[in-house]
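FIELD: query
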Amino acid sequence: MTTRQHPALAKARSVGEALPWLTRHQDRTVVIKLGGHAMVDEALTAAFARDVVFLRYAGLKPVIVHGGGPQIGAELERRGLASEFRAGLRVTSTPAMNVVRMVLAGQVQRELVGLINAYGPLAVGITGEDADTLTATRHVPWIDGEPVDIGRVGDISRVDTGAIEALLADGRIPVVSPVARSAEDGHVYNVNADTAAAALATALRAQELIMLTDVEGLYAGWPLSDEVIGRLTARELEKLLPELADGMVPKMTGCLHAVRGGVDMARVIDGRVPHAILLEMFADEGVGTVIVPDLEEAEVPA
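FIELD: result
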């Protein structure tokens, strides 16, 4: 006697195989920085929104920090304002800051919240200004041994997680725009989204920080090699930072600060790959570059 397999058997097996993963990730806070190609490709952004809702229903607590560089650049060009980057950061004049604030909080955030809520009514948009979630001071980078004024670009000086924790406790998915008000002069500052994600992950005591970007991970010997470094300790990454291209510096500096600040791991993965965050969650290795604390920092006394 033969028994025919039910058409849904493969799906049932997949669900069963996910049980260890679901058990391992229950109640884990995961801060995800969304940027780059994944934000301008409609199919990728829709897949990301669906995956984030899956993570929430699977028992995780995702917090989204979004960028908006391409959208900001397009709006600046439309208005005849220059786009310039120094030390990997956008030079932000006062007129440019008005555009940054409008695009991030009024366009990109609203679109992302709407996409997520199309799959589940969970997303709530806030900015770093709201409830003083992020407070900034003016960032002055040193380039070729000299301080350089890059305008209304901020360093995060304080994080108040109260509003985000309240949203998480209510089962919501916070979607955060990286702008912050300064306690020194009252102005609103443009904060690099990688930096903001790392600061929030640290303050929330998140288990993981995920940076979605336009590369597969951190390359060994770029541009001479496209071999992705799979795993680095904080100390190993710190040694590499002076050699990195400008665009990778904020991401990898954020990862370094996060794992040094108590986050279990930080990972840079390719946002151009559909369902990248689910691949990262389910795959034990081989996805992007993972940064972990140094061994002595990770050890817990008996």
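FIELD: remark
The first strand starts at residue 29 and ends at 34.
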